[in-house]
Predict the structure.
Amino acid sequence: MKTILEKGISALQQSDMDIEALAAPRKEELISLLERYIAEIELFNPAYGLVGTNNHEELIVKHILDSLAPLGIIYRLIKEKDGKTESALKIADAGSGAGLPGIPLAAALPKYEFTLIERMGRRAGFLWNTKAALGLSNVAIEEGEIERTAPESFDIITFRAFKPLEPKLLKALFRACSQDGCLAAYKGKSEKIATEMAPLEKLCGSWEAIPCPVPFLEEERHMVIIRPLV
């Protein structure tokens, strides 16, 4: 019998041709990596407060599948960077916390380099331990704040942790982003996104909210792509 994780990955594959192309050739390996990652979270969560649930299925749906739901969108953003080699393209997960969405994305996209940026030492320690436990050679850990990252370090910056996004933080994220790069924000309801982005529009070149439903989650989810002023 398939687990909820396997069913969720299958549902994502059926919903997006790019996710199918990425996941199908190495599905067993991906499932294995994610199961080991889930085990690490469950082991350390009581002491570290990594995620706000102790329920196994809720962890999978609200955190692992949620992180992977926009995988096809992120892969298409990557493919926009045709001028860069795979090894040169850099992706960051700002405020990574437990490694969400950075670790699931890095597991699904092993050809691309991910930097997980986390200011809390205990959680950064968890990320270093998890990187070693999973053998993720395409992951680097940076303990600190996004504001201290070198300018124009990354082509794509993902984040789930920042609610709401406000001008000072947006400027810091854009500073760390390459001029032709973008931010990829995990967000919920479209009305809330419009309200949140309204005061930020003058700071952005453009933005769009793309629906990305999460298997088994009856909540509206979007990926908001925000591009800097040119």
